[in-house]
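#lab-general

N.A. 3:47 PM
ok so I finally got the sequence cleaned up, no stray characters, all 360 residues accounted for. can someone with queue access submit it? mine expired

B.Y. 3:52 PM
send it over

N.A. 3:53 PM
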Amino acid sequence: MNHPTDFRGYPTVRGRSRRLVLGLTATFAMVLGMAGMGAAAAAADTVIATIPVGATPAGVAITPDGHAYVTNRSDGTVSVIDTGTNMVVDTVNVGNGPNAVAVTPDGTHVYVTNNAGGGSVSVIDTGTNMVVDTVAVGSFPRGVAITPDGHAYVTNGGGGSVSVIDTATNMVVDTVAVGNGPRGVAVTPDGSHAYVANGGDGSVSVIDTATNMVVDTVAVGNDPRGVAVTPDGHAYVANNADGTVSVIDTGTNMVVDTVTVGSNPEGVAVTPDGSRAYVANNADGTVSVIDTATNTVVDTVTVGSNPEGVAITPDGSRAYVANFGDDSVSVIAIGKCAGSLCLDFGSLTGSGSGVGSAFS
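B.Y. 4:20 PM
back already:
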C-alpha cells in the first residue's frame, strides 16, 4: 500500500484540520505496527504457519477456548493444537481410522468418528485430553455434528444411516435411514435440522432433529462430501467428483447456486459471521474462498498436500486445514479488508481463539 509521506502538497490543510489528519495518520501507523509485521504480512487469506501432526490428518474442529483437535487417520490419534502458539500440546490415542471430529457447544468434550475396526465414536474430555467413553455406532462412521442441545449426529458410511448420540449419557438414542454412503453432516444454527451429504447417490438428506425423521431430500452434485451451514441458513455442500459446491437455501431446501471450486473438494467451513466459505480441494492442494454474498470464489490459497478437513476459529481470524498427504496442518490468516488494505485484526487483540500467534 502507498502511504502519503509529505503533507506539504496539501496547502489547504492547516490548524486543527492539519492536526486531525496528522493524528489519524499516526494512529493508522500505530495500528499497522500492532498488526505484527505490517499490512503485507497480514494480507487476507495467507498461510502463516504449517504444523506437523500425526499420520494422514483428516478432520479438524476447534474448541471455544482455542484448541484445534486434528484426527490422524493412519495412526489412530488426535493431535491437539494450541491455536495461540500453533504448537501441538497433546496427542490422544483413540480408535482405528479416526476421521471426523466435532466439539460440544460448551467445549468440554470432542467426539471422534473411528472409521475402521467395527465402527465407534471416541469421546475425549478436553480438560484432561483423555478418552472417557467409546460409543458403538454403525459401520464406517464418517462425519459428526453436534446440536446446541447436545445430540451428536454420526453418519455411517457403510450402512446408509445416521446414529444419534445423546451426549449427556453417550447412548445411541436413535438411528435414521438416509441416502447411500453418507459422509459429511452439519446442523443448522438453531439445531432444528441436520443436513447429511450422501456421497453414493448425489443427494442431501434433511433430518428434523425434533423427530429424527428425514423431511426432505435435495439433489446436489456428484459425490457430495463436506457440508457447512451459514448463520443465515444456507448449506454449502462440496461435490467431490464435480469440483463444485452446491448452495442450498435451508428455508426452501432448494439449490439456489452452484459454485465452481478446485479439484476434488472435500471439507468446507464457514466463518462465524457467514461471509465466507472455505473449501479444501483435495487433488490440487488448495483452499477456495467463497464470498457467500455473491457465491463467487474471491481467493484461492495454496496449502499442503491433499487437504481434507477445515475449521475456523470462533473469532473468525484463522482457518486450520488438515493436509492428509503430508501430515501437516496449514494455518490461514483470515484478514479483514477495506479496499486494497487487508489487516489481520485477530492479531491485535492478543487473546482468544486463534490470536496472539504472531504469524509463527
